[in-house]
Amino acid sequence: MKFDHLLDSYRSRTRAAASIADGKFVAKENALALLNAIVRSGDRVCIEGDNQKQADFFARELVRLDPAKVQHLHMTQSTVVLDEHLDLFRLGIADRLDFAYSGPQSKALYRLAAEKKVKIGAIHTYLELYGRYFVDLYPQVAILAAEACDEAGNIFTGNNTEDSPTIAEATRFKMGIVVVQAKQKLAQLPRVDIPASWVDFIVVTDEDYHLQPLFTRDPGKITNQQILMAMMALKGIYRPYGVQALNHGLGYATAAIELLLPTYGEQLGLKGKIATRWVLNPHPTLIPAIEAGFVEHVYAFGGEPGMEDYVQARPDIFAIGPDGFMRSNRCCAHIAGL
Fold it and tell me: Which of 101, 172, 176, 250 has its Cα between 20 and 30 A from that of 275?
């Protein structure tokens, strides 16, 4: 029996792209040619869509593939956010999807499923999907978004590291092709989040990738009912049970709890007794509790636009290494938040 079909496929794809690449680097204008070289009909393709950051440059390039030449792609991604994510199915380039969340595209996805333009393999929890990347949904091609790269091809993903190393590892060690869109090339990276040996091709876009501020809430929109619910939670649940570690989701109800900690929580004598360790993104509504000394540690699923400087200035609170930048990990945060 032959046991290296995947290696043959990997070598065939990299050879096909060699003429348009300078080592690992492909010019922005040749991104479509790169996709034509490495993507084959029937491939599992993981384009980074996670909760916040999107490989949007390549999402726009993928829909330019010729459906007469590339069809039946099986898309695997934790979130379906961009119009282009669904355009792949409308155009007949992809026909199967495994995902975890489709909030902004849920109605459009439902219509495509009803029209039988997309077959949904499963709607997973995030951890189920990450696990299957290593078992039966390992991508033939993975496309990631990054803050920066260096000349050697090492990748820095910064505060919004999120899923990127997990996807890269699952792909690389099943002979898949790993492609990265990087904002910029730097002479020296703050740290290496994905080693060059895991990366095949890089396109330096010189532009920001799509990054959604999911967790920023205007306190003025918190209702009296939500404030009452927050006070009841603090007094009726957090205090009697001594809840120390929390996985707070996004929304005004949890924002109300965070904002009440240094006021109502202080009145109840709860400082140091509850809500000291958190699994959540850097919520702006957590700032008063941090400044009041309620919070000892925050481990984040991802970053939050606008909070970078605040986070960087508080390495005792957030997961920050000697490089000075927070590192998030969506997979580990989900495990910690169970």
Answer: 101
